[in-house]
Amino acid sequence: MLEINKIYNIDCYEGIKLLEDNSIDFLLTDPPFLISRKTNFHTMKGHRGTSMDFGDWDKNTDILSWLDLIKPKLKENCNIIIFNAWENLGKIAPKIREIGFTPKRTLIYQKLNPAPFNRDRLFVNSMEFMIYATGKKWVFNRRKDKKLEIGIFEYSVQRKTYHTTPKPLGLIKELIEILSNKNQLIVDSFIGSGTTAIAALELNRNFIGFEINQEYHKTACNRIEQPI
Fold first, then answer.
1. Which end of the chain is less crowded, N or C, counting CB atoms within 10 A of the terminal residue's CB?
2. pTM of the predicted model, to two decimals?
């Protein structure tokens, strides 16, 4: 049995097997996008050091079969948020249906300070996407100060201090606040540098995270002051 509020330095395929069946209230995760590639960005004025090669973890990775493993671990009223590139949404949504959950919406992380690459030739790459899916009688906490919960979350891109593809802490906290209740269990199977763990702790939720990369795992543990 795994301890709650801990980040494990193991492959999610091994970690998921150790989770209790019917234990996850909210699956919130950011798997590889498989978009790493060589570019000429490093030659552009003002953008030296910029790259679309995020590392080996974003290459040749299976982004679907882990969902088969996690299916029995999800409560029937579980909420699901999976970040990914627009190119992969049409693959992930059918897999979610296959494991018995229902994709409801595509949510958007709108970047307020997108990189201006090719701005004279293309629309800038200012969005990342999430598939939002539910089970039965799911949690949805519409915030009282909002007449409507609009599925567009506006945040500036974070500096790559902890990870090559970080998500804003505020964004993750918003998702947790809306889609879970206090003391529920949030699982992030690709927890990276630990942002989901920090957000969960700040909002009085429990979490379990898996991260195979040793450096990211070390960073995540340091951020939540957890022994490595």
1. N
2. 0.87
Sign, Cα dihedral of 69, 72, 75, 76: positive
Tell me the C-alpha distance between 73 and 92, whole Å.
18
At residue 1, the pLDDT reads: 80
Q: What is the mean pLDDT of residues 2-8?
A: 97
pLDDT of residue 4: 97
Map tokens 């206090």 to a residue. Answer: 182
pLDDT single digits (tens) 12-31? 999 999 999 999 999 999 99
Comparing CA positions, the residue from 6, 25, 30 lying closest to residue 189 is: 30
Tokens 């002051």 correspond to 225
Average pLDDT over every residue of 54-61 = 53
What the block records as the tokens of 203 is 């909002």
Check residue 37 and give its pLDDT.
46
Measured from the Cβ of residue 121, the count of other Cβ atoms closer than 10 Å reads 6
Comparing CA positions, the residue from 166, 208, 205 lying closest to residue 5 is 208
Report the alpha-carbon angle 125-128-132, nearest 5: 155
221-225's contacts with Cβ under 8 Å and 24+ in sequence apart are 221/7, 221/194, 223/162, 223/193, 223/194, 223/197, 223/198, 224/7, 224/194, 224/197, 224/198
Mean pLDDT, the chain, rounded, equals 89
Nearest to 4, CA basis, from 20, 21, 27: 20
